[in-house]
Amino acid sequence: MADGTTAIIAGLTGLLGIAAGAWLNAFLTTRRERWNLRRELYVRLLENLGEVNDTLEYLFDAELSPPSGADDETWKAWEDRIDKLIARESRAVEQIRLATSVAAIVLSDEAIKPLQTLQTEWKKAKSADSFAKHVDLRLAAVSKAHQVLVAAAKRDLGI
Fold first, then answer.
1. pTM (two decimals)
2. Which of 15, 22, 81, 106 is 20 to 30 A away from residue 54, measured at CA?
C-alpha cells in the first residue's frame, strides 16, 4: 500500500511540476514577445524620426542656398531635389504616424508624450510665414522627439 501511495504522490508531484513549468514558460514567452514588440516599435519610430531629421536638414540647407544666377536646367534639378526630399520626408512621416497609432497600446506614457508633442509642433509649423521657417520648426520638433524617445526606449527596454 505504501508503494501505491508513493507512486500516486510522485505522479501528482510530476504533474504539478509539468503544469508549473508550462505556466512559467508561457509567462516568460509572453513577456519576451511583448519586449520584442516594444523593441521593434521603438526601432521603427527612431529610424523614421532619423530619416525625417536628415531629410529636413537637407531641405533646410537647400532652401537657404538656392542656385543663384543659374540656368533653367540647374533650377529644374534643384526643384527636383526639393520635391524628392519632400516625398522622402512624407514617407517617413507616414511611417511615424502608423507606428504612433500602435504605440498608444504598447509603449509607456513617457514614450507617447514626445510623439504627441511632435504632432502638435508639426501642426503649428504649418502656419509658419516661410518654407524655411516651416522646415526649421519641424526639424526642432523632430530632434527633440528623437532625443526624448531614445531616453524612453533605453529605460523601457532596460538597455
1. 0.76
2. 106
